[in-house]
Amino acid sequence: MAESSVTLEEVEKSFQKFAVHGDTKATGKEMNGKNFVKLCKDCRIIDSKNVTSTDVDIVFSKVKAKTARVITFEQFNQALIELAPKRFKGKAQDEALQLIYALIAGKEPANMGITKVAKTGAVDRLTDTSKFTGSHKERFDETGKGKGKAGREDIHDNSGYVAAYKEQGTYDKKMKEKE
Questions:
Q1: What does the DSSP 8-state code read for residue 71?
Q2: Three-state DSSP class for residue 70
Q3: CA distance 13 to 10
Q4: Inter-residue contact 83 to 100 (CB < 8 Å)
Q5: Of 20, 25, 83, 122, which is most buried by a Cβ count within 10 Å?
Q6: Residue from 97, 102, 64 nearest 80 by CA
Q7: What residues contact 22, with CB distance under 8 A and at least 6 apart?
């Protein structure tokens, strides 16, 4: 048995974090196949020698219910029991399972490949609205926030009877003056 045994609660917390990853409607009680593979990759259960992503897919299909597309924590645990001897060849079943638990405990989904905002001199100069001139200057207010459609095109006032009529609303006044 491994010196430091990991509790199932720690593994379950990681399971829940991976289960809700990338899915706004997920409750954390069930995990889909994509997130199961992500957990196996991020926690280094998939090592490309002993365990491949194909192995993980096969085990996922084996433990889930026939028509289901997700697994519960109990089924997840069953999947780990099947993957443990493959990942840690030559170890006893219990020891291999503890080593897999140790890989998973405390982990959460890594967000690899997320685009960071570029902060180079050229980008700062090009996006500084205080340096804009001409018609581009009209598209932003003094704080540098865009005005939207009002900044891009002239909005016409089509409330008059004749286009560009300057004395709108003065007809009644003129009629009273004549009386």
A1: E
A2: strand
A3: 5
A4: yes
A5: 83
A6: 97
A7: 34, 35, 109
Measured CA to CA, the distance from residue 46 to residue 40 in angstroms comes to 6
C-alpha 80/C-alpha 99 separation (Å) is 10
For tokens 């900044």, what's the residue?
151
Q: Under the phi-then-psi rule, with left for phi > 0, alpha for psi from -120 to 50, and beta for the rest, what region is 39?
A: alpha
Cα-based torsion angle of the residue sequence 28, 32, 37, 43 in order, rounded to the nearest 10 degrees: 10
> At which residue do the structure tokens 């491949």 appear?
52
Q: What is the CA radius of gyration of the chain?
A: 32
Q: What angle do CA 69, 71, 77 make, to 5 degrees?
A: 155
Instruction: Give phi and psi for 167, each to the nearest 5.
Output: -100, 45
Task: Note whether 83 and 53 are within 8 A (CB).
Answer: no
pLDDT (tens digit, 0 to 9) for every residue of the chain, 179 residues total? 344 567 888 888 889 988 888 888 888 899 999 999 999 988 888 888 889 989 999 999 999 999 999 999 999 999 999 999 999 988 998 999 999 988 988 888 877 556 666 666 676 777 777 777 777 777 777 777 777 777 666 666 666 566 666 666 777 777 787 77
